[in-house]
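Running co-folding for pyridoxal-5'-phosphate.
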Amino acid sequence: MDDYSGHYCLMCPGPVNVSQRVMQAMIGSEIGHREIEFSALLENIRRNCLKIMNLPETSYAMVVITGSGSAANEAVICSAIQPDDVVLSLATGEFGRRLGDISKIYNPNTVIHAQEWGTPLDLAWVEDYLRTHRVDWVTMVHNETCTGELQPVREVGALCKKYGAKLFVDAVSSFMADPLDLVDCNVTFMSTSSGKAIGMAPGLSLVVGKIDAFEALTHYPVRNYYLSLARHYDFFVNKRQTPNTPAIALFIALNEALRMILEEGIQERLAFQAQKAAQFRNGICSLGLSLLHPDHVLSNAVSTVILPEHTGFSELREALRSRNFIVYGGKGPLMDKVFQVSTMGHVDLNDVNALIDALRDILADHLHSVA
Ligand SMILES: *Cc1c(COP(=O)(O)O)cnc(C)c1O
């Protein structure tokens, strides 16, 4: 294969389809990152991002790191959490677990609270643990992408406040799909990435957090040079630059994607994500298929559907791929039990309907071949 171009309808939980306007922004992006144009661009991104999140500029800051969402997660964990801090990592699934795995590399005092995927977080256990143990940081995921279930950030944030712990939330797959108020939820740092519900290409990750917490980093030892949040913050605040050569074209496109969200309206964008998710879920039910845990608190970013009987995921994946749709299979214990469909990014209600129609065709063909 020597043609790598594609025009798939990406209905997988990242990467997502990108609008023409954002794509166009990347073209003609020949500016230097040590020049005033780049500094102005960074300042715009900062201002618009805080505006979108409804955060006061006097007490919240953000940095953009070149790298996928995991870069932001590792940057926070290696920079904000000190070697002798105690970390309680709420492993609600694959992505919660990864935060714990990163934390273990930098912090021997990491306790991973693992629970069965798709079971709601046991808040009574969390409270009991915080009451009876010293915990400096709690890490958790907002939308546990592997199940598409939202986690109780507000409740955990309140417990952190009560017992004096700081909270780091991975909102990579929920930002701009599900509302999250960092002030209300008592979140110290939050991470997200360009390539999910922001509707941009992958390659940039964002860390948003309290200015006090960013400032405190400057007193800590640097434990990872490239991903040092302190260095990113220092360059951002003092020079409006990045420590190393950034993915300039992606920064320009991110700026455009954030502008589009503001033009459309934040509530409108969130409502549209909710509408697309609801339309897909209704469609799934009309086909006689079932969602995994429809009674749990589901994210508007991704839907997890139980595979129809006698259908392997690879078969379904290929049938959808040949109709131009990309979806993902289940991970870990959900492998070959579910498939996952995301309605994030530049897809509209027609695309959602087209996917449901494609699934209807595939199921009919399949029944035919089984009969
Ligand atoms: C996508 C995702 C990430 C980041 O994964 P990358 O492979 O680094 O893009 C992190 N956390 C969650 C919850 C995600 O959905």
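Result summary
Residues 9-14+265-370 form a domain with the Aspartate Aminotransferase, domain 1 fold (CATH 3.90.1150.10).
The longest helix spans residues 349-370.
Job closed.
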